[in-house]
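[SOLVED] Need 3D model of a two-part complex

Original post:
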Amino acid sequence: DGGITQSPKYLFRKEGQNVTLSCEQNLNHDAMYWYRQDPGQGLRLIYYSQIVNDFQKGDIAEGYSVSREKKESFPLTVTSAQKNPTAFYLCASSGEDYNSPLHFGNGTRLTVT
Amino acid sequence: AQSVTQLDSQVPVFEEAPVELRCNYSSSVSVYLFWYVQYPNQGLQLLLKYLSGSTLVKGINGFEAEFNKSQTSFHLRKPSVHISDTAEYFCAVAGSSASKIIFGSGTRLSIRP
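Solution:
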Protein backbone atom coordinates (compact mmCIF):
# COMPACT_ATOMS: atom_id res chain seq x y z
CA ASP A 1 0.00 0.00 0.00
CA GLY A 2 1.20 3.51 -0.75
CA GLY A 3 1.78 5.87 2.10
CA ILE A 4 4.10 7.93 4.22
CA THR A 5 6.40 6.39 6.82
CA GLN A 6 7.77 8.42 9.67
CA SER A 7 10.35 7.02 12.03
CA PRO A 8 10.85 6.69 14.87
CA LYS A 9 7.42 7.09 16.48
CA TYR A 10 8.95 8.32 19.75
CA LEU A 11 12.29 10.07 20.14
CA PHE A 12 14.05 11.31 23.24
CA ARG A 13 17.05 13.65 23.22
CA LYS A 14 19.04 15.74 25.60
CA GLU A 15 19.03 19.50 25.21
CA GLY A 16 21.81 20.72 22.95
CA GLN A 17 21.76 17.72 20.63
CA ASN A 18 20.68 17.81 17.01
CA VAL A 19 18.19 15.13 15.98
CA THR A 20 16.95 14.00 12.58
CA LEU A 21 13.41 12.78 11.89
CA SER A 22 12.86 10.50 8.93
CA CYS A 23 10.06 10.78 6.36
CA GLU A 24 9.69 8.49 3.36
CA GLN A 25 6.82 8.31 0.85
CA ASN A 26 5.99 5.90 -1.96
CA LEU A 27 3.07 7.86 -3.37
CA ASN A 28 5.19 9.39 -6.15
CA HIS A 29 4.24 12.85 -4.88
CA ASP A 30 6.34 15.84 -5.82
CA ALA A 31 5.51 17.98 -2.80
CA MET A 32 6.43 17.17 0.79
CA TYR A 33 5.88 19.10 4.02
CA TRP A 34 6.87 19.16 7.66
CA TYR A 35 4.40 20.39 10.28
CA ARG A 36 4.72 20.87 13.98
CA GLN A 37 1.70 20.21 16.19
CA ASP A 38 1.32 21.60 19.70
CA PRO A 39 -1.83 21.22 21.82
CA GLY A 40 -4.48 23.78 20.92
CA GLN A 41 -2.44 25.34 18.11
CA GLY A 42 -3.30 23.27 15.09
CA LEU A 43 -0.55 22.53 12.59
CA ARG A 44 2.22 24.97 11.78
CA LEU A 45 4.32 24.63 8.64
CA ILE A 46 8.07 24.28 9.18
CA TYR A 47 9.43 23.58 5.69
CA TYR A 48 8.10 22.38 2.38
CA SER A 49 9.58 21.10 -0.85
CA GLN A 50 7.85 21.04 -4.22
CA ILE A 51 10.68 19.37 -6.13
CA VAL A 52 13.89 17.48 -5.51
CA ASN A 53 16.85 19.63 -4.43
CA ASP A 54 14.60 22.59 -3.62
CA PHE A 55 12.79 23.58 -0.44
CA GLN A 56 11.30 26.68 1.19
CA LYS A 57 10.84 27.90 4.72
CA GLY A 58 7.41 27.75 6.23
CA ASP A 59 6.04 29.84 9.06
CA ILE A 60 8.30 28.50 11.84
CA ALA A 61 11.57 27.41 10.16
CA GLU A 62 13.97 28.83 12.75
CA GLY A 63 15.97 26.08 14.44
CA TYR A 64 15.14 23.47 11.80
CA SER A 65 16.81 22.27 8.60
CA VAL A 66 15.78 19.91 5.80
CA SER A 67 17.14 18.26 2.68
CA ARG A 68 15.46 16.81 -0.41
CA GLU A 69 18.02 14.70 -2.24
CA LYS A 70 15.47 12.10 -3.38
CA LYS A 71 11.83 12.42 -4.34
CA GLU A 72 10.84 9.82 -1.75
CA SER A 73 12.66 11.29 1.23
CA PHE A 74 12.40 14.55 3.18
CA PRO A 75 14.27 14.35 6.51
CA LEU A 76 13.93 17.07 9.13
CA THR A 77 16.74 18.02 11.52
CA VAL A 78 15.82 19.71 14.76
CA THR A 79 18.90 21.65 15.75
CA SER A 80 20.04 22.82 19.15
CA ALA A 81 19.01 26.33 18.09
CA GLN A 82 15.33 25.40 18.28
CA LYS A 83 14.29 26.87 21.62
CA ASN A 84 11.27 24.66 22.29
CA PRO A 85 11.70 21.44 20.30
CA THR A 86 9.41 19.12 22.28
CA ALA A 87 6.39 18.55 20.02
CA PHE A 88 4.60 16.17 17.67
CA TYR A 89 6.05 16.36 14.16
CA LEU A 90 4.02 15.42 11.10
CA CYS A 91 5.28 14.83 7.58
CA ALA A 92 2.91 15.09 4.62
CA SER A 93 2.95 14.90 0.84
CA SER A 94 0.63 15.99 -1.95
CA GLY A 95 0.19 15.84 -5.69
CA GLU A 96 1.19 18.65 -7.99
CA ASP A 97 -2.21 20.39 -8.11
CA TYR A 98 -2.51 23.13 -5.52
CA ASN A 99 -5.90 21.81 -4.46
CA SER A 100 -4.59 18.30 -3.87
CA PRO A 101 -5.23 17.09 -0.33
CA LEU A 102 -2.37 16.27 1.98
CA HIS A 103 -1.45 12.71 2.89
CA PHE A 104 0.08 12.43 6.36
CA GLY A 105 2.43 10.06 8.13
CA ASN A 106 1.68 8.90 11.66
CA GLY A 107 4.03 11.40 13.23
CA THR A 108 7.08 11.45 15.49
CA ARG A 109 6.76 12.60 19.07
CA LEU A 110 10.00 14.29 20.09
CA THR A 111 10.80 14.93 23.73
CA VAL A 112 13.86 17.00 24.61
CA THR A 113 14.94 17.22 28.24
CA ALA B 1 -4.19 36.34 3.37
CA GLN B 2 -6.23 33.35 4.45
CA SER B 3 -7.26 32.23 7.88
CA VAL B 4 -9.39 29.53 9.46
CA THR B 5 -11.28 29.71 12.73
CA GLN B 6 -12.70 26.69 14.49
CA LEU B 7 -15.05 28.16 17.02
CA ASP B 8 -15.14 25.28 19.47
CA SER B 9 -12.03 23.70 20.96
CA GLN B 10 -14.04 20.85 22.48
CA VAL B 11 -17.46 19.40 21.69
CA PRO B 12 -18.95 16.72 23.95
CA VAL B 13 -21.97 14.81 22.64
CA PHE B 14 -23.85 11.67 23.54
CA GLU B 15 -23.59 8.58 21.35
CA GLU B 16 -26.16 8.52 18.53
CA ALA B 17 -26.77 12.26 18.86
CA PRO B 18 -26.16 14.64 15.94
CA VAL B 19 -23.10 16.86 15.91
CA GLU B 20 -21.94 19.99 14.13
CA LEU B 21 -18.35 21.22 14.21
CA ARG B 22 -18.04 24.81 13.13
CA CYS B 23 -15.46 26.29 10.77
CA ASN B 24 -15.23 29.81 9.39
CA TYR B 25 -12.63 31.03 6.96
CA SER B 26 -11.47 34.29 5.45
CA SER B 27 -9.87 34.66 2.07
CA SER B 28 -9.60 37.24 -0.67
CA VAL B 29 -9.46 34.59 -3.38
CA SER B 30 -11.33 31.43 -4.28
CA VAL B 31 -10.66 28.71 -1.78
CA TYR B 32 -10.59 24.99 -1.45
CA LEU B 33 -11.77 23.63 1.87
CA PHE B 34 -10.96 20.43 3.72
CA TRP B 35 -11.83 18.59 6.89
CA TYR B 36 -9.30 16.19 8.39
CA VAL B 37 -9.63 13.81 11.33
CA GLN B 38 -6.83 12.86 13.72
CA TYR B 39 -7.10 9.84 16.02
CA PRO B 40 -4.82 9.78 19.09
CA ASN B 41 -1.11 9.58 18.28
CA GLN B 42 -1.72 9.35 14.56
CA GLY B 43 -1.45 11.57 11.54
CA LEU B 44 -4.37 13.33 9.88
CA GLN B 45 -6.74 11.63 7.46
CA LEU B 46 -8.85 13.43 4.89
CA LEU B 47 -12.58 13.32 5.72
CA LEU B 48 -13.88 15.39 2.84
CA LYS B 49 -13.03 18.29 0.55
CA TYR B 50 -14.80 21.07 -1.30
CA LEU B 51 -13.18 22.15 -4.55
CA SER B 52 -16.15 23.40 -6.60
CA GLY B 53 -19.67 22.44 -7.63
CA SER B 54 -22.28 21.25 -5.15
CA THR B 55 -22.02 23.03 -1.85
CA LEU B 56 -22.97 19.90 0.11
CA VAL B 57 -20.02 17.56 0.31
CA LYS B 58 -20.19 14.01 1.59
CA GLY B 59 -17.18 12.34 3.10
CA ILE B 60 -16.13 9.16 4.81
CA ASN B 61 -17.61 7.72 8.00
CA GLY B 62 -21.00 9.38 7.40
CA PHE B 63 -19.75 12.96 7.71
CA GLU B 64 -20.83 15.80 5.46
CA ALA B 65 -20.09 19.51 5.22
CA GLU B 66 -21.77 22.47 3.58
CA PHE B 67 -19.90 25.30 1.91
CA ASN B 68 -21.62 28.62 2.55
CA LYS B 69 -19.92 31.39 0.64
CA SER B 70 -22.03 34.23 2.01
CA GLN B 71 -21.29 33.21 5.60
CA THR B 72 -17.73 32.04 4.79
CA SER B 73 -18.39 28.81 6.63
CA PHE B 74 -17.74 25.13 6.09
CA HIS B 75 -19.37 23.37 9.03
CA LEU B 76 -19.00 19.62 9.48
CA ARG B 77 -22.02 17.53 10.46
CA LYS B 78 -22.97 13.98 11.28
CA PRO B 79 -26.57 12.95 12.05
CA SER B 80 -25.64 10.23 14.55
CA VAL B 81 -22.21 9.84 16.13
CA HIS B 82 -20.51 6.70 17.33
CA ILE B 83 -17.90 6.15 20.01
CA SER B 84 -15.37 5.53 17.24
CA ASP B 85 -15.81 9.15 16.08
CA THR B 86 -13.89 10.33 19.14
CA ALA B 87 -11.01 12.27 17.63
CA GLU B 88 -9.74 15.74 16.84
CA TYR B 89 -11.08 17.40 13.71
CA PHE B 90 -9.26 20.04 11.70
CA CYS B 91 -10.67 22.41 9.12
CA ALA B 92 -8.22 23.63 6.47
CA VAL B 93 -8.26 26.12 3.61
CA ALA B 94 -6.06 26.19 0.52
CA GLY B 95 -5.73 29.01 -1.97
CA SER B 96 -3.43 29.47 -4.89
CA SER B 97 -0.53 27.40 -3.64
CA ALA B 98 -0.25 23.98 -2.06
CA SER B 99 2.29 25.42 0.34
CA LYS B 100 -0.32 27.72 1.76
CA ILE B 101 -2.74 25.24 3.27
CA ILE B 102 -3.85 26.83 6.53
CA PHE B 103 -5.20 24.70 9.37
CA GLY B 104 -7.58 25.66 12.11
CA SER B 105 -6.68 24.99 15.72
CA GLY B 106 -8.80 21.85 15.86
CA THR B 107 -11.96 20.68 17.64
CA ARG B 108 -11.80 17.74 19.97
CA LEU B 109 -14.95 15.63 19.68
CA SER B 110 -15.69 13.46 22.69
CA ILE B 111 -18.53 10.96 22.61
CA ARG B 112 -20.31 9.94 25.80
CA PRO B 113 -22.04 6.55 25.98
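Edit: Chain B touches chain A at residues 9, 32, 34, 36, 41-46, 49, 51, 90, 94-99, 101, 103-106 (CB under 8 Å).
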